[in-house]
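### Sample
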Amino acid sequence: MTNSRKKIKLSTKMIVASVLGIVFGLIFGPAMGNIKFLGDIFLRLMQMSVVFLVMGAISEAIGSLDMKDIGKLGGKTIGLFVVSTLFASFVGVILSIIIRPGVGVTGVEAAAYEGTLPEGNPLDLLVNFFPKNIVESMSSGAILQVIVFSIFLGLALSMMKNEKHGEAILGLIKSFNVVIMQIIKIIMNYAPVGIFALVASITGTSGINMLAALGKFLIALTVGCLAVLALMILITSAYGKLNPYRLFKKLNNTIVVAVTTTSSAVSLPVQMEDAEQRIGVSRRVSRLVNPLGMNLNSHGLAITVAVACVTVAQFFNIEMTLSNYILFGVMSTLATFANLAVPGGALVTMAIGFQMAGLPLEGVAIMAGVDWFAGIIRTLLNVVDDVLISVIVAISEKELDMDVFNSDEPVMIAEVE
């Protein structure tokens, strides 16, 4: 029997919550800051499972592969991450040269910056990618270190896949991943309330003036992110002979969650669901590429750091040469590999980029005032491009289910044994 009452989609509820948040924020002003705790609870609930989600997804993805496939799939994925992120960084540099966002900026009060900068040279940063105590890494939310451990755990499971102990542990991890995803689905029912509180509080306390303060910076960032997003959709569609409009439409839930939460970590389970159940990416590809992409494939963050580097250099009247611009592009790419996939983590990444590029760290305080607004478009590109690269990898591996892609409803892909 057909249900006469049509169920409202979660994405629709989140859009309505966002619009209402803006309206209430503008009407009631700073008073809406009092409900921010509701949004903070939502983000905490989502973030509490991220470490387990990343560890389980990567361990399962690698552990389920044959050893001969790991080098091919992993190398292909990392290669796409590096090339595409480098391209995004230079798009940001070029647009900043054209738009000149740091020229003529006045009336911007330096916001307080309380982030912690890593000490040492780039080699020290590289060493810090590797955990010395995985429990400590998990408790501190050092996702990159968790990823490194998960890769080794997955490799060990792959080597022992045909042995009794390896098979048992891999099966346990698969079951654990199902439970974690169910926890996240439960939490997502609270999403409209949390999103309303977050949007209303930031709009009410910051107002429109904050958005206008660094308008040219936001314009350069937005143009860059949208240009790269459009190009990535076209490249993916052309490579897989897919309908670009249908592909974009399939990303609806991912886009809404990314824009409303400004968090790649919170968006991860939704983008994995879109990749697997709406687009047709195989589980083994999706659960390797998407969690890795959360930290190693941040196109939006790369553009943000690149635009910020040029903006700060222009703001402080620092003379720049072609080699300086090239340095900004490369350093912006490297800085994203230390990305913190939570709201506000971009300021730390920005500071790392400034430090490596030799720019005044005072620039971080200037950018902090508009970082929340920048995070909207930045996170959108970060998470959507992760999904698109998972699609590209799936196409290259002949693991894109066209029946799922052409379906108008989500389809649960059966696990391939």
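Residues 85 and 299 are 5 Å apart (CA to CA). This sample (Dicarboxylate/amino acid:cation symporter) is used throughout the tutorial notebook.
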